Amino acid sequence: MQLGLIGLGKMGGNMRERIRRAGHTVVGYDRNADLADVHSLKELVQALEAPRVVWVMVPAGDATHETITALGELLSPGDVVVDGGNSRWTDDELHAVQLAERGIGFVDCGVSGGVWGLENGYALMYGGEAEHVERVQPIFDALRPVGDFGSVHAGKVGAGHFAKMVHNGIEYAMMQAFAEGWELLEAADPVTDVREVFRAWQEGTVIRSWLLDLAVRALDDDEHLVGLRGYAADSGEGRWTVEAAIDHAVPLPAITASLFARFSSRQVDSPQMKMIAALRNQFGGHAVEATDGKAGPIEK
């Protein structure tokens, strides 16, 4: 099968290689000419035989919208576009309508696997009409892990990215739990080898997981993580998960707390804690710490 693939970064580049290893032809385009097989979207479309399948693997938001809009001008009725980035599911619905007006099919696909996907395969969650999914199925089969699990037609357009969004929300909460447990173990005087405690959990426990394996790997590289700054970004999908929970009146206390914990990681000097310190001083006379000598302790 032929596939056009747009976006050849860490994920897209490895996906191109895995698909080629499965015997398919991939024509790739990227703004970085050193990575690309062709030099424009027009050349990519011209290099494929109709009916075409083009997979978009670029950042969510404007970049994806602009790419899909451009493809709508270049592709023909009967072609199919796959959005494999981290787009919001509501964008999928708009893109599907936009392309359908030109007779072009649309499939959204949440992709998980990161830098390990080339060798291990990618977990795939896709949404769209059955006939469009069927057209892309050989590529899904090439990308997915070997075995009975790892891919699902999750539902109609938007379902793939919605499922991936929830997956990432769960991931936030699981990582936060491991992080909190690690910090408590590090703080406890009786525990003298936190890394080996984590390693012991890798077999025979209910929390054994790939995330735990990766935590042990990180601790093997830097036992107390002294080389890392305590800052964690969020890709946006954690926020979307919480927003969707509000829309559906579904309580998500663990996922929501893990998202807010990431926000707190970005504050070197928390404004909220300034107020808490001031209030503790006011009602209880508790000591407060000055900042750079510019503000001394508050006195009653």
TrEMBL record:
GO process terms (BP): D-gluconate metabolic process; pentose-phosphate shunt
Keyword presence, Nuclease: no
A Pfam family: NAD_binding_2
Keyword flag Ribonucleoprotein: no
Domain 6-phosphogluconate dehydrogenase C-terminal residues, every copy: 160-294
Gene3D superfamilies: N-(1-d-carboxylethyl)-l-norvaline Dehydrogenase, domain 2, NAD(P)-binding Rossmann-like Domain
GO molecular function: NADP binding; phosphogluconate dehydrogenase (decarboxylating) activity
Keyword entries, A-Z: Gluconate utilization, Oxidoreductase
InterPro entries xref list: 6-PGluconate_DH-like_C_sf, 6DGDH_YqeC, 6PGD_dom2, 6PGDH_C, 6PGDH_NADP-bd, 6PGdom_BS, NAD(P)-bd_dom_sf, Pgluconate_DH
Protein family: Belongs to the 6-phosphogluconate dehydrogenase family.
Name of the protein this chain belongs to: Decarboxylating 6-phosphogluconate dehydrogenase
Origin species: Streptomyces alkaliphilus
Annotated gene: gnd
